[in-house]
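ok trying this again, last paste got cut off
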Amino acid sequence: MEVVANEFFRSGMAYIGAGIAVLTGFGTAIGQGIAASKAVEAVGRQPEAAGKITSTMLIGQAVAETSALYGLIIAFILTGK
């Protein structure tokens, strides 16, 4: 019976860890929202630089999105065990 209890504890901890790993998406969403709002403000101030501002914003958001994707991958790995 001791083996079953340890197995339940291990899988329960894996699910808690997966939930914590998915929380990385909140920070990413907040950061991307701030970056998008600042880009819109910048385009409003200098419409002629819209192309450069948009491309820089998209590159920055792609880099920021990787942290959320890593959290999701870790969550899948933890729940798969």
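PB: full thing came through this time. The radius of gyration is 20 Å.
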